[in-house]
Amino acid sequence: MKTVSDAYKDAQNSSLIYPVRKVELYRRLADGSGWESAPTDVTTEVVRLDRLSWKLDTDALNEFKASNIRIEVENTDRRWDDDSIERFAGYLRFRSKIRISLGLKVDGAEEISPVFTGVIEDAVESSDKPTLQLDVESLDALLRTRTAESAAIPVTDELLGIGDGVISEFTTSRFPVGAIKEVRVGGVPVRLGLRYNASGLNDPSRPAKVSFVSIQPGPGEEVRADYLVWKKDQRIEQVASDLMAIVPQVPVALIEPVVFDPPAQRQILHSLQGDFEAYDLRLAKVVEEDSPPEDDGKIIIDPFDSRTEWETGTLSRINSRRVAGGIAPQWTSQYEGDFLPGDEEVQVEGVAFGSWQDLQSTPGIATRTASNGILSVSQAGLSDYFIKNGLEGTSLSRMVLARIRVTNVTASRVEIGTRVPGGSPERGASIWFESLSAVRVRTGGTEFGPFNVDVTQFHNYRLVLTMANANSGTWVLFIDGTQVGTGAVGQADLFMFPGIFLHSIAGSSGCAFAIDYLRFYGEGTTFPVGTWTLVIDYSGHLAGLVQASLINTLGPFFAVPQGNAAGSQFSFSWSADGTTYGTEQAVTIGANIGTFVPANAPRYVKFKIQITADDNPTLVAVRNLFLPALAVSNIIDAGSGVVSWETWKATRDTGNGSIKRFTAAVAATPSGFGYYRAVTPSDYIESDDAAQLDNAAAERLALITLMATSGLNSPALRETVIDFTTRTVLVSMVNLGTRTVWDVLTELAKIADFEIGLDGEGKFFFRNKSPGATPVLTLDGSNLEKVQSCSPGWDRVYNSIRSTFGSYVREIDPSTEGEPSPTSIDRFGARSLSVGGGSLVFQTDVDLATVMARRYFSRYKEPKRRATVVARFMPELELGDRVAVTLQIPRQILEPFEARILGVAHDLMNMRTELDLIAAD
Question: Does the reported pTM lie above 0.85?
Fold first, then answer.
């Protein structure tokens, strides 16, 4: 009931009342955005007012209906005309707002309240009399004509991809997509059906796809799109609020939360790629599993096994291109015999242009074959052949390394060396192969040696130049790691080149040799050392798990070492804030990362790999690094109506490692979570029990999975099933389609078994049907004129409910609910009601059909008395009010009962009120 004064109540109870009314006009602004703030009182201009009526429950359940009203106004002076200077200049007459207020005169003053607010939809006049008839519709007309899709999320000008003349399919970055509004190729709109088709719309698990059916976008052409994204995982009342937000002309009086009783037995299933991609993944990834079902997925550890992934870390003197799926120390230049010298960098490292040169004095004079990592060279007589790379480091000191065998140097020579730039004259040195039993070092025009070695077999040769400055230095020669000679670095020969070079001079008998590798390091005289560092933010959940004493380590890591395993060293340190790290701790492959204690809980882990190169043919490298991974689900929202969390069952493969599962409740902590608990061996969830001990409610949970492996076979989380009971149900995909705001609100009301409508001020309400506990007044002989009709309500008994939502269909009747005899069907016969359907997509985990069927069955299985009464003028009564009904003899046709007002009608000319009543629960 409207708020009225005690004096008003006294006047209403008196034998004589003085009804009053007021009609106000709010002119519509010229831009159509709203209405003027101060109204014009047009009460004296009103000649006639039609009957006003509202109903909450018409022939269809959960339907609000407000009657349109026709107001006849005096228009002799034409002030109500569209072009009236006096009234509508600078305003719009169409959909200007009319507010009607009703009340009583109390102690000589008017006490009134708004009872109807509507907009002018039409204006009709005739030549018979100087009046104008205004057709006024309730403000819900604005909701009935506004398309609901404006409540979706608009995505504009998104770059779907860049054409290459071949690619024909492009996907959106967001989903679920409700509609593709426009697609542009190279800035030019293209037509649906003619140039492209759209698929994957209204699918909550995957993006939409734009497929070009005729001409594919050309090379470099941008493909952009505008589209709508339906909101996901919204509470019913939030959907209603979002819809009302796009019609600001209709204010909101009340939107109540939807609480289901009986509660829903919910079962959430995560098994598709789209389900898992909503997780917060820390060093984990979602991969496809074999269908069926389509789009089946699982979560595994995301290993560092590609250049892109390795380069997410911090690289210092690390080559992420040379070893497939791994990292190795960075040489200034290197050739490994996998391809011809001029091609290898392009083929192996993917660079656009290689830095190695492969030169012959006469084209075709040297035959070169690269096979199994060995370059074999057969050179005809009286010719020169060069392999060289002029890249320099930052140091004058340097190392030249070669693994080579020479099988023919009769009257020939193979020379491998370097020139040191900047000297006067420039210095240089090289290894000379001019016999099959020894090598020499040449520098300053002098040959040193011989150093005996079987040159026909592969050996590792390392020439180290330690330069004091550009004009002074010492050379040292190592063969297979053993020093065999040393001396001063002298002047470079004419054909010595910077960086590294190989020069083969063939005599008349030709020359033949094979190269395993050529390597040059221009940063000093020790083997290259590279470091790779990665800072992993494991989120606040890591600290939460440690503080709760659930874990003291992340578990083991795994990597595949290549070459000399001792050349790869691993270590880690950790930090709570990402700034201050503890002592670095060495760790070996397969060992645990971390020994944490609750008092020092980490969030960040810094993992470091240090790799030292050597002169072995197999490069020292690290491949396929598996670090412990964390996968945190999207928040599972049971709502304020949560009853209990039951179980989290998971289908998982441990592989070469382990999977640990935990839950955490959203809580008022710095991390936003609390009540961390491990899932029990029987899959029981305990976070809610912990919260209850603290007098808190665990309405929302995060599911936390910790995976670690000590081998190449990663653990996998394939399926997650969460069971809990709640009185809150979410809309998993707010599919608004092409419907109006009112259509969607009506569907929401039917699902919730709520009532919707507008109050006298034109404010929208979305509320439970339960009336107040105390009657606001008594209807009796003092204020009732007559009972127009009354019935026991048998026609509104429904005792066989068929509810359909998504894939769930449920039929509820007295037998399924164990109703004792005589049942509702025994007494009233079987009366069926179907509910459900609609376009909104509710969580596929929710057996909403069961909840709805039971809700409707409990409400409608028994008849409720209905009556229509005519009372004195009572404009203070509102829809949904609870009243007591008592009629005394001789007019008694109803037993006293309490009722809820479902309909209100005011006769504004005779000043009477008609009420539709239904027995209250």
Answer: no
